[in-house]
Structure formats: C-alpha cells, structure tokens
Amino acid sequence: MVKAIRLHETGGPEVLRLEDVEVGEPGPGQARVRHSYIALNFIDVYFRTGRYPLALPNGLGSDAVGVVEAVGPGVDCVKPGDRVGYLMGPQGAYAQVRVMPAEVLIPLPDGISDRTAATLMMKGMTAQYLFRQVYPLQGGETILYHAAAGGVGLIACQWARALGVIMIGTVSTDEKAALAKANGCTHTIVTSRENTVERVKELTDGKGVKVVYDSVGKDTLMTSLDCLQPRGHFVSNGTSSGSVIVDSQLLAQKGSLWMTRPAMIHYIHPRPHMLDMAAELFGHVLAGRIVSEPQQEFALEDAADAHRALEGRKTVGSTILVP
C-alpha cells in the first residue's frame, strides 16, 4: 500500500483526503513510477472544485517526476531506473507511486535535477507551447503577460528575455514585480495601484501590444482586449478568476481581434513532438537561460494547505508536494 490524495466529492481544499491505495504491476503499455516530487498547478483547483469534470472517487494531479520502477509488456520508450517526468495522462499524480501510460513519460537529462524538473513539466511546457506554437514569438515583439510572477510566469519572463521579446508583465504586489523583473520581465505593472491599459499604452507609445497572454480570465478580459493593437491576438490560457465569454462582435469593435483558448492536449501530440518540446525547454535550462526552482514546498499530506496558499495568491513561482 502507498499513500495518495483522493477526492470523493468536489469542493474546497478540505475534500482532499490522504488514503492508502494499492498499486499493482504495470500492464501492457504502462510503467510504474515512484515519485520524488509532485507539482501543484492551478488546473488542479479546477478539477477539485468541479469546474473541470472528474469521475469520482478519483485521484488528483497530472504533473510529477520520479523514477521508473517497472514496465509492462510492449514498453520500449522507458526502462526501470529511468528518471522521468510527465504532464499528461489520467489524474492521480498526488501519490507516492502510480501506474502510468508509458507514452506520456519524458526522460529527464542528467544535468537537470528532479527538484528542478518538477517545476518544468507542466509550467515549462506551457511556456513553450504559448510562446513557440500558439503565437510563435520571433523576437522584438512587445507582449503583455498576466500573472508574471506565477509558476508559468517566471519561466515565461526568462524565455521572453532569451528570445529578445519585450515583456510587460502584470503582478499584484511590488514584491512580485521585483521577482518578475529579476527573472527578465522588461516592464511590470502592479495592478493593485496602476491602471494596466494606461501603462501599456504609455509603454508602447499608444500602440498597444501584438499579443496578450491571459491566464486570469473574467477579471482581466476587457483590460486584455483594450491593450491590443488592431488585429492583435488575445490568448486566453487560463480562467483563475472565472470563465471568459466573448461576443464575436466585441472582437470586431475592439480592432478585428483574434482570440484563442488553447489547451495543452492539442499542442503536445504526437509523442515525438512532445519530446521535441521538452528538448527545447531543457536546452534553455541546461544553457542557463532558464533557471527554475520551487518557491514553496509542502508535504503530500498537506496538499490542502498548498491549495489554500495557491488560491489565496500567497505563492510565487512554482509549488511542489513531497511524497
């Protein structure tokens, strides 16, 4: 028996229960992974609260790193002893050990520790697909990025700097502004005391930006649209403040804007492409262009406290759970 966090109902952090679970041998196409670190992501909150449907009872979490203990028949992409990470597959990463589809496991390079990798799988790969696929940045663009001091945000700051992109990042406090700047964000806007639209127009000589990456959602929708140039791109990559509903006529009125609501699953397949994405991310890390370490750490049994901190905006950067 091993320990795992389970949900029997949706709701607040209190619904997360630490339970004993049985983990069997991997079947065809599967691998058993013993976790060293588990990543906390805001999407976990969506599943916990029921915003994203989840058959119950169930596990939680889709992002972890560890070592392969055993593989089932037909598996040749990983072997026992391999250090791996993953960000796809069924919910259930909040566990000491689990059986996974082997095809979603990403081998980790020797130069990247498990602790670092735990901050990179979902968050780093999200930065990759946002900056390199959803709206491919070439360098020289001016962009607006909401929540620049978050887990994805700090990686995005560094990636933007590596690409030669002028990044305007929104944050909620001066402390987060300093952190975002230290990680490469060109300009910061402290939303608790500054008007985002006015500052963006000031920083762009009244032109606005070509693209906005908005993981906040409902609360920042109109701000994001008002910061865009005509024919600009609104990338709605999260809804932490609530869902986004946009009338297409509004997009026309605001300047014939483009809007997309991307999902990782549509940008990461097939497996060779996923491995190429990871190779680009790992290359930046190994070269020192992206440095990523956990900023908060909780024991697995304290997952509820980790969720409270995340939802209360008391975290910066990445948060990990230690099984």
TrEMBL record:
<keyword id="KW-0560">Oxidoreductase</keyword>
<dbReference type="GO" id="GO:0008270">
    <property type="term" value="F:zinc ion binding"/>
</dbReference>
<dbReference type="InterPro" id="IPR011032">
    <property type="entry name" value="GroES-like_sf"/>
</dbReference>
<dbReference type="InterPro" id="IPR002364">
    <property type="entry name" value="Quin_OxRdtase/zeta-crystal_CS"/>
</dbReference>
<dbReference type="InterPro" id="IPR036291">
    <property type="entry name" value="NAD(P)-bd_dom_sf"/>
</dbReference>
<dbReference type="GO" id="GO:0070402">
    <property type="term" value="F:NADPH binding"/>
</dbReference>
<dbReference type="GO" id="GO:0005829">
    <property type="term" value="C:cytosol"/>
</dbReference>
<dbReference type="InterPro" id="IPR013154">
    <property type="entry name" value="ADH-like_N"/>
</dbReference>
<dbReference type="InterPro" id="IPR020843">
    <property type="entry name" value="ER"/>
</dbReference>
<dbReference type="GO" id="GO:0035925">
    <property type="term" value="F:mRNA 3'-UTR AU-rich region binding"/>
</dbReference>
<keyword id="KW-0521">NADP</keyword>
<protein>
    <submittedName>
        <fullName>Quinone oxidoreductase</fullName>
    </submittedName>
</protein>
<dbReference type="GO" id="GO:0003960">
    <property type="term" value="F:quinone reductase (NADPH) activity"/>
</dbReference>
<dbReference type="InterPro" id="IPR013149">
    <property type="entry name" value="ADH-like_C"/>
</dbReference>
<dbReference type="InterPro" id="IPR047618">
    <property type="entry name" value="QOR-like"/>
</dbReference>
<dbReference type="Pfam" id="PF08240">
    <property type="entry name" value="ADH_N"/>
</dbReference>
<dbReference type="Pfam" id="PF00107">
    <property type="entry name" value="ADH_zinc_N"/>
</dbReference>
<feature type="domain" description="Enoyl reductase (ER)">
    <location>
        <begin position="11"/>
        <end position="321"/>
    </location>
</feature>
